[in-house]
Amino acid sequence: MESPNRLHIVLIIGTVLLTVPWLAVAFSTHPSAGVTVLLSGMAILGAAFLISWSAELAQFDVARSLAMALLALIAVLPEYAVDIYLAWKAAHDNSYIPLVAANMTGANRLLVGVGWSAVVFLGWTALRRRNRLPAHGQVPIEPVLAIEVTVLIVATMYSLLLPFKATITVWDAVIFMLMFAGYVWLAGRAPHIEPEPAGPVATLATLPKGWRRFAYVLMFLYSGLVILVATEPFTEGLIHLGKSLGISEFLLIQWIAPLASESPEMIILCYFALRGHVASAMSAIISSKINQWTLLIGSLPIIYSVSTGHLAFLPLEPRPREEVLLTAAQSLFACAVIANRFFSRLEALLLFVLFAVQLMLPSVMVRYAFSVLYLVLALGWLFAYRREVKVNLNIFWRLARRLPVPEEVR
User: Fold this and answer.
1) What are the boundaries of each domain within the chain?
2) Model-level pTM greater than 0.85?
3) How far apart are CA 79 and CA 257, in angstroms?
4) Superfamily assignment of 4-409 in CATH?
5) Cβ atoms 257, 103 nearer than 8 A
6) pLDDT 10s digits, 25-58
């Protein structure tokens, strides 16, 4: 039987090999849409794994909250690449405009509806197996995550305005960018917590400091090259494939594209949770949501303006408006669920079921109905947890000022 170190090395090599077939044909042949989607999708999948591992290694050099923020930022680069490409094309072809919101909203709802729920269920299983589950049987959210929770609530409340404005402006971009910059600054002030590496990262972490840093820089640069080469053909391949098969390209961009970019991160974080590293998994997956709901949205009108050559507002057509409203409403409910710093299996199941049912019933009335349902549930949860919300805000302010968190709220 192979040792864990050898298995991890095999996994790293296998992941790199996922990227090779597309690089081998990208500059020499013009394969069909199906083959293009398959090979470029594999390349993005492999690159996303390598990027996630490189970001995890950065935990050893900076505070964990900041490292998790960087992990979330770097891990969603494939998602950024797809949306940035779509925003760039939308400036010259109006048919791409709704696809920008399709990819962004699909990735966000997938992350919360599937990713958050999976981390909670796996984390609960791991904590119970190790006899570390609290008496009330819920997965704890560490006090240090008050930073993430507070920033996400603020970003979500602001995003609820976008569907009513029917545009995402450069001024919206500035606000979202400032939110993200504030989050990174606050995360850098959070107390250092020793990282808990798992999988291939655990093997790479045993390297001397210089080689470890070289490894994650090399993985990041190589992955960036792969994403640069694979994003455009993958996106265009999905659009052409949808047209040839009679499938809505909106749905393909909304759900299939995020699978290639989101699944590596979710797999890694679920592995973290299953290994009992629930704090790291929850920190990273909430950070990912903040990234997508601040920096990603904020980048879109900027790219759109640069592509047009003048200051421009990214329009939200009726379908994108519905999708953004639904996504913002889901985000607010997710924030309300973790407002008391605990995450129950029932809440995780509810998040998943609501996501799955809405996914299977893609109609205008269903999207509006679920938006209202999410908002009503969010208000109900926030009212029920109103005392915990005040405590959470107090923890946030104490962390922002680098004051110790009282023992009774830990």
Assistant:
1) 4-409
2) no
3) 8
4) NCX, central ion-binding region (1.20.1420.30)
5) yes
6) 877 777 888 888 888 888 888 887 887 777 777 7
